Amino acid sequence: MGDKDKRSTILVRYGEIGLKGRIVRTRFEERLVSNMADVFIDAGIPCSFRRDRGHIYLYTGPEHEEALTARLPKIFGITSFSMAEEFEGDKKAIVSYIGARSKAILKDGDTFAIRSRRVGQHDFSSMDLARDAGEAVLEANDGRKIKVNLTAPDRELYIEVRNNRNYLYTEYIDGPGGMPVGTQGKAVAIIGDREGAVAAWLLLKRGCSVHCFMLDTSMEPLVEALRVWHPGLKAVLCKDPGIKVEDDAAIGEAIRYLRRIKGKALISARRDEPFKAKMPVFFPLFGMRPAEIEKLAKRIGL
Description:
CATH architecture of the largest domain: 3-Layer(aba) Sandwich
Number of helices: 9
Shape: elongated
Largest sheet: 9 strands, mixed
Number of domains: 3
Radius of gyration: 24 Å
């Protein structure tokens, strides 16, 4: 058994990054890979990467699959990912492989559908591949009462052919979406309550390198919750522990810190009467209902 057979393959997908021009897209892809590598290195998980347009391929040992799949849903820029089986071969080999593997994937009485797509030049269409693979699955499972259901199947078998490499997977696992942290400028978030942490999270999701300006030490658990989403998150403590979120003094000290780190904008959790400053200020919660903010806070883990 070769080294490729011993490793696990994870197909990582991105969304908005793919809309960028070639130069910007490459830079954003590299940032996403770098952010993933930082998370996995910090967790002591060995892995390697390969890229093509629309996908990042993550390789690791089977013993690290669970740890990786627990961390990937919290890396900004990832829209979804799939645990995949990677193999090579022509259409005949693909069909044979799917038929053989379906016996372990499907249970007696299951309905199934084959979803196929291709990238590159091949002498068969995606529809041809799906039809022939479906026939192979039925033949391999003869006597198990397994049927095709293209609208609401019990299991879906996805076949992705990308040039000379083939991938089989059975599910999409959602990521947080957004843009990779570090693809936009620096910003300082004023953290004086849970809403401040939610506002910071929303700008992290848009790719900003967020620094947290904590009004007192009681905000540290909120910052630690945000670090689950971005381990490199930086935070500083306000010099005046009695300061309030709405105080001009808090805004002034946050602005001075912003200038010191050469940041571009402030982030505030205010939802009414936003303050004015001689610089860009983001109010990501403006117009959001309390119930929406609470739902988002629970998702973040605040």
